[in-house]
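Chapter review: from sequence to fold.
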Amino acid sequence: MLPDPLASVLDELNAPRDTPRWNTTLDDAAHTLQQRVDDAEALIDALVEDTLGEGQAEAAEDLLATVLDKARMARENGQAAGGVFLEALARRVKALAERGVLSGTAAMSLSRSWVRAGLSPPEAVAQSASALSELAADIDPQTLPDPETLFESLARDADNNPSVLHAGLSEMLPTLPPALRTAIVRDACARPGQTYAALAGYWLLDPSEALRHAAVEGLRRRLEAGALDAALAGRLVMTRPWLPADTARAALDELIREMKRRGASGGSSLNP
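The token string follows.
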């Protein structure tokens, strides 16, 4: 059950957003919540167990995303308390998943909050058997669109804006099994068109090595299909130094060498 002060804050946040007063209330509440991990865990419990009042769920997502963002920044600034806070909330999500109460809807809600804070959601979000079974139950195999139709629909909903498309996919992917996540990223990056070319750039800088590697594999398929033009090749060369030294960068290096052999340089040096 939510502590009364926290419930009152959610009621205050159930108001028109992005006004000066609303932003101040959100920031102050997140600052207070960061000092009270028990209350933050209670907020997650309420989101997962669907015990929030009318209009409070969206406010709870906003508050959770904001306090996670504050904790992330604290951790990045060398403050141990930020990391301790994030680890505590990840453990709470894992405990809820192990209890079998993490529904597909709740998993999406938590995923959105973590992604909005610039964090990878806890793995328990995807590992929750109840979440995955609910997501699968919502899909009628007879009505599944083919991949072509699916990606066209996603891009249309995002107005062909790669940033919006990436944000939407980033919220959805953590609720799916790892193999399906990488397949979606790979297939998206392999698709022709400037929207997906730009989308590949986002995935190359993803925190997940597996997703970065999937993006490179998708780009390799673009190259094989003759859909990797010189301009995109040049952007890949410029992006390469920003990748950590891991298998994904090694795969990108090999792709760059292959582009060099084919002459798709975009006017940039292709020497990794």
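Two observations follow directly from the output. Residues 145-262 form one domain. DSSP finds 15 helices and no strands in the chain.
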